[in-house]
Design goal:
Length: 473
């Protein structure tokens, strides 16, 4: 059996795009982007985020898929193949696997909230439209450690079930049906949002580049989020690319994924902020934003309970198409490198990630990983850093992974592609079956100089190094 047959491959070209878009489109777009956009003051943050997507994210995505497709291996094996068995580049692959491990451990908690809201919609407990009451529901859930733990285990089990099914039967089939459905649902909600009194104010908030509330941390967050939302820096695109057939166009696939992902993130903002402004809620509500706003919006429509069920179950599915790619990264490391069976790898990794997620599930409480953790961290790191790195274990894990690990490994992947990968492999992969081959030189320059420089400056700025050197204030 050839390597390809043994590992599995996408059944069709569109299957890959849908699955990769499924990985990219997830809680990052619908839950996280609107709330960090709200916290960072809207427009200017959105603009920086868009620049990061085009100038940094897209070129790295092409690079990641290229690494995966040319080696047909998951991250560690891929770097080993291209950089040499003894090469240190393997560590970059390992970093990705580790980041995927940590990320899934808290991603699953948020997905658990979506599961809980689906359940509440079914039982009719949140179909009322009073913003205060709906807000309290989220507050209660956030602090309810038992519910968080239960849903975390449930969601991890769901993820494992799909990954056990393998590439075509599990991942591709799910994405094919659910991604289009999600787009339809969001479109319906968007039409509804245009009728809200807060629509104009929301447009202004999202698109007017007002820099008043933008900080250095905000810029780091925009950069980090562009990696998070495109599933970069953890090797997910390397892994998915490794199941991609040689005859599809890498560049146009990557552009399609980025466009879809960005459209959905902006749609989510344009759905949530009109409600926020119409009901006098604040855009800085934090992680509860989507959970507090959607039930209020839907309550104004006929069949609101049914729509709530549809929305939150789609959110669960969007999370699932992302979480499976995270678990796939970790599991495929053991399948490819340690020669474990898919079953063993999936089960062992799921158990380990579920255990590692327990502190995140307990973060809403006041004990060890919640408020106590936040104050302990502040006293160790000092006031300024303690505040930047935000609250409890859950926030901290997200902060370290999104703002530091992803950009760092993204930068290393860019450097690898631009400076280490053989010119023949690189050019061949880029131009094969492509009408966009003429963009090769521009892409390469971006990866060689622009991408590493931007990431480095942002990282140094955030650590305060540039300030200490008197370069920026
Ligand atoms: N891109 C996903 C989201 O936006 C998260 C994710 C990151 C998934 C990295 C896989 C790998 O929700």
């Amino acid at each position: 059996m050839s390597n390809g047959e043994n590992r599995g491959a996408w059944g069709s070209k569109i299957g890959f795009v849908l699955a990769a878009a499924g990985s990219a489109i997830g809680l990052g777009n619908i839950w996280k982007f609107p709330y960090i956009c709200g916290e960072n003051g809207g427009g200017a943050f959105v603009l920086i985020y868009l620049v990061c997507i085009v100038v940094v994210g897209l070129p790295i995505m092409i690079g990641e898929i290229m690494i995966g497709r040319s080696t047909q291996k998951s991250p560690v094996g891929a770097f080993e193949d291209l950089g040499g068995k003894r090469s240190r580049w393997k560590i970059v692959g390992g970093m990705g696997v580790f980041a995927a491990f940590v990320m899934l451990s808290y991603y699953s908690i948020v997905a658990g909230w979506a599961c809980h809201y689906t359940w509440l919609s079914i039982s009719g407990e949140i179909s009322g439209g009073d913003p205060k009451e709906v807000g309290a529901v989220f507050g209660n859930l956030y602090e309810n450690t038992n519910a968080n733990l239960g849903w975390h285990v449930f969601f991890m089990a769901l993820t494992a079930l799909v990954v056990l099914g393998g590439i075509q039967r599990g991942i591709e089939r799910g994405a094919r049906i659910l991604m289009p459905l999600l787009l339809v649902m969001l479109s319906v909600l968007l039409v509804q949002a245009t009728r809200q009194s807060g629509w104009d104010k929301a447009l202004q908030f999202v698109f007017e580049p007002n820099t008043d509330n933008l900080t250095a941390e905000g810029i780091l967050e925009a950069l980090g989020h562009s990696f998070f939302t495109l599933s970069l820096g953890v090797g997910a695109m390397i892994t998915y690319g490794s199941y991609l057939r040689k005859d599809s166009c890498l560049v146009s696939n990557s552009v399609a994924i980025c466009v879809l992902d960005t459209v959905i993130a902006l749609m989510a903002c344009l759905i949530l902020f009109p409600i926020t402004f119409s009901f006098g809620m604040t855009p800085t509500a934090g992680p509860g934003l989507v959970f507090q706003n959607i039930p209020v919006a839907l309550a104004q429509m006929p069949g609101s309970q049914f729509l709530c069920i549809v929305f939150f179950s789609l959110l669960v599915f969007a999370a699932l198409t992302s979480s499976i790619s995270l678990l796939e990264v970790v599991a495929s490391y053991f399948i490819d490198q340690k020669k474990w069976s898919r079953k063993k790898a999936t089960l062992v990794c799921t158990a380990a990630i579920t255990l590692f997620g327990i502190p995140s599930a307990l973060s809403g409480g006041t004990d060890l990983f919640g408020a106590n953790f936040a104050s302990a961290k502040e006293s160790i790191l000092g006031e300024e850093w303690g505040a930047i790195t935000k609250g409890n274990w859950f926030d901290f894990a997200d902060y370290v992974v999104s703002n530091w690990m992803l950009p760092l490994s993204g930068m290393l992947i860019a450097v690898f592609c631009a400076w280490r990968l053989g010119e023949k492999v690189r050019r061949d992969e880029f131009v094969r079956s492509s009408t966009l081959g003429h963009l090769y030189a521009a892409w390469l320059r971006l990866l060689q100089y622009v991408v590493p420089a931007i990431i480095l400056v942002v990282l140094l700025h955030s650590t305060g190094v540039l300030k200490a050197l008197g370069i920026l204030d």
